[in-house]
Write a structure and sequence with these properties.
Elements lengths: L1 E9 L2 E9 L6 E5 L9 H12 L3 E5 L4 H10 L6 H16 L9 E6 L1 H12 L4 E7 L17 E6 L3 H11 L6 E6 L11 H16 L15 H8 L2
Parallel strand pairs: 3-4, 3-5, 5-6, 6-7, 7-8
Antiparallel strand pairs: 1-2, 2-4
Helix pairs in contact: 1-6, 3-4
């Protein structure tokens, strides 16, 4: 098992992350937090714990430096800069490809709020490495023209009582050409604080990643991720 704090280079900065990988992982999930949040988000950490129980590694990453976070808290300058956030996610995907213990594993992206848009943009730029995307209460509409470039299967998880965001997700899905689905958590609001809501997010996300990262369902537990040939076919979809 791997459990350590890491530094991921991106341009002229280094991003802090928490990498936790169980034994015999089916893949690794890179988290993209939403506006005003960080790798310490208790919601994302709860989901990450659920994914690890399903045999998936997780990398929770601060997409902004401490200085940028302070600036963003005062000005809001960076939180909707999905191009910047996506570029840093791409760098993290590339970093995982060379990291001992996870190199060669299929990668999934889990994005919350504005982080979902960044995850979708990044998935479109790394089709040979990103095999699935999950959005939690996300803003996929902010990915704009990048939506049709996504080849990986996309799951959009939205609270049933989060009317505005649900509407934005339904509009965005019209531009997705990859396999996709909207999963509505009944009665849940934007941050999924309702009893059982976040657990449903984690379980649904785990099922999606297990189905699309090559781990399959429970009867194929421990099977390897996609082969090189499968990766090539995926990138060409």
């Amino acid at each position: 098992m791997i459990s350590e704090t890491v530094r991921v280079p991106s341009g002229d900065v280094a991003l802090t992350g928490d990498l936790v990988v169980p034994d015999r992982p089916r893949g690794v999930i890179l988290f993209a937090h939403g506006s005003g949040s960080s790798r310490l988000s208790h919601r994302n950490r709860a989901v990450a714990a659920g994914l690890r129980r399903a045999g998936l590694g997780t990398l929770l990453l601060d997409l902004l430096t401490e200085d940028e976070e302070r600036e963003d808290a005062a000005t809001g300058r960076h939180r909707f800069d999905v191009v910047l956030l996506a570029r840093r996610l791409v760098d993290a995907v590339d970093w995982l490809a060379g990291r001992p213990g996870v190199a060669g594993l299929p990668v999934g992206l889990f994005g919350a709020s504005t982080g979902a848009a960044a995850a979708l943009i990044a998935a479109g730029q790394r089709p040979e490495r990103v095999f699935a995307v999950v959005s939690r209460g996300g803003r996929p509409d902010l990915a704009g023209d990048a939506l049709p470039t996504v080849h990986a299967p996309v799951l959009l998880v939205v609270g049933g009582a989060d009317d505005a965001v649900l509407g934005l997700n339904r509009e965005a899905e019209q531009r997705l050409t990859a396999h996709h689905r909207i999963h509505v958590v009944p009665g849940a609001t934007h941050l999924f604080p309702e009893p059982g809501a976040l657990a449903e997010v984690a379980e649904t996300a785990a099922d999606w990643f297990r189905a699309h990262l090559g781990g399959g369902t429970d009867d194929t537990a421990g099977s390897p991720g996609p082969t090189a040939a499968q990766a090539t076919r995926h990138a060409g979809k």
